[in-house]
Amino acid sequence: MNKLDNVGRYFAFLAKVIGCAFKRPFYFKQYLSEVEHLGVNSLFIIFLSAGTMGMIFALQIVTILSDFQAEIGAGAMVAVAMSREIAPVITTLMLIAKNGSAMAAELGTMKVTEQIDALEAMSITVEHYLVLPKVAASLIVFPMLTMLANIVGSIGAYIVSIYSFGIESGGYLDYLFDFLSPRDIFMGLIKAFFMGFIVSTICCFYGLNASQGAKGVGDSATKAVVASSVAILIADYLLTTVILRFIYI
Q1: Helices marked H in the chain — which ranges?
Q2: 1 lies in a domain?
Q3: Is it the case that residue 168 has pLDDT exceeding 90?
């Protein structure tokens, strides 16, 4: 399939998935299983990555602000950066690496072993039974883990700023809460919602189009990770442009 053909197939696939959203039956056990797999099982990697990013960013910001005797503003800068950009992007990239590749590999394996054909032979719509629960779970899990990343990253920045650089705690927190607004947090959550949709649909699309046995499954997982990573970076820019124009006015 050439690139244009892939784009057309992807949007046709999206139409099928969205069309299945309001059809019965609703596979609630599938939904809960996917939420557990995508969300609960990803807590550790989000704690680790977000906490590390917050600490690293605090090191950089405090070092820069120290030249201006403005270290007390480091917490506010880290919190805003985490809320608007770092938390949704780093959360999405971690989930692509952990769960996106797994989605593509799972569906790809089912495709090449003819399990997909067996489901279709039983009149089960694959997009309804297999894909929709993954997409719906992603729409729930990505914003929740992004919010967790905001909190963990800010705590990491607080620890570095207070205990490594000796910044006064009360002023640090007052400045943070005065400067950080709900719109900053809302901006990141909007991005996480759309990124969850993009990642889950792209990874499922490549998984369902796997071929040529085990090699094809590996290739589809690789393509899914690359395509979804590039797509969320492009989406991040576009969403930032739209949000800044229509919300931050």
Answers
A1: 3-20, 28-38, 43-65, 74-81, 87-95, 101-112, 115-121, 126, 132-159, 169-179, 182-208, 213-246
A2: no
A3: no
